[in-house]
């Protein structure tokens, strides 16, 4: 478990033990031309470090409430960059095997997926490629990305980010919008009017309500366009 920003946990999954990395797994250091960060490090911590040290390359993450481990597992991406572009290597703890270091190629990064989604291992930390810049330039890039997000996405509400992966050569948001589902609410979860591929928790919605709405959208889009939308959000049930 990282920051949980891409996880939907059903009541039926509450018997599964979840491991959440604590403070001991939140650190960042600059070493020989790379940034080494532990997996529990949050995006705000990574942004503060980049800005202070004038190191560029991580700004595309800005504004997202995620952890480094979760971003690597998901091959997080936006603004035409993704984790695959910056990961040099990943340190992982695998039960009954021990500590293993994976090179970028060995991580099998693909669109919002990686080896770590099926490996049954715990990402401990990663070496990230950065370039030298200056604090002012890094700060400006971070601010620009955050303000673009604030304009286009419901960043101040409880969401998962994108609910669905984009189908090949199409856009999940466009299909949901065309289907007239923007603003559709069931019962305490709403498809965002700001971005059709986001859903907002309008109160104390249960995980079941969120799952019901996800399935409703999938059925509607399949009936209209014969397209199966695959959730990007990880559903634990
Ligand atoms: C407002 C908002 C905006 C977003 N924008 C984007 C975006 O632009 N692009 C994008 O790609 N995503 C986006 N997301 C989705 C989400 O932030 C990313 O998927 C992020 O990578 C998830 O990180 P997390 O730490 O919250 O992971 P979690 O939700 O905690 O976990 C996600 C998956 O990673 C696994 N995992 C987490 N940590 C580890 C670890 N240490 N070792 C092994 N496995 C681990 C979990 O088991 C789970 O399967 C957004 C989310 C929100 C709320």
Q: What's the rounded overall pLDDT mean?
A: 96
The low-confidence parts are none
Helix content: 25-40%
Task: Characterize the biggest β-sheet.
Answer: 5 strands, antiparallel
Spell out the helices and strands N to C: EEEHEHEEEEEEHHEEEHE
Number of DSSP helical runs: 5
What features would you describe in this structure?
The chain is of the alpha+beta class and 237 residues long. It has two domains: 7-152, Uridine Diphospho-n-acetylenolpyruvylglucosamine Reductase, domain 3, CATH 3.30.465; 172-236, Alpha-Beta Complex (Uridine Diphospho-n-acetylenolpyruvylglucosamine Reductase, domain 1), CATH 3.90.78.10. Helix content is 26%, strand content 22%. The chain contains five helices and 14 strands. The radius of gyration is 18 Å and the shape is globular. The mean pLDDT is 96. Flavin-adenine dinucleotide binds next to helix 2, strand 5 and strand 9.
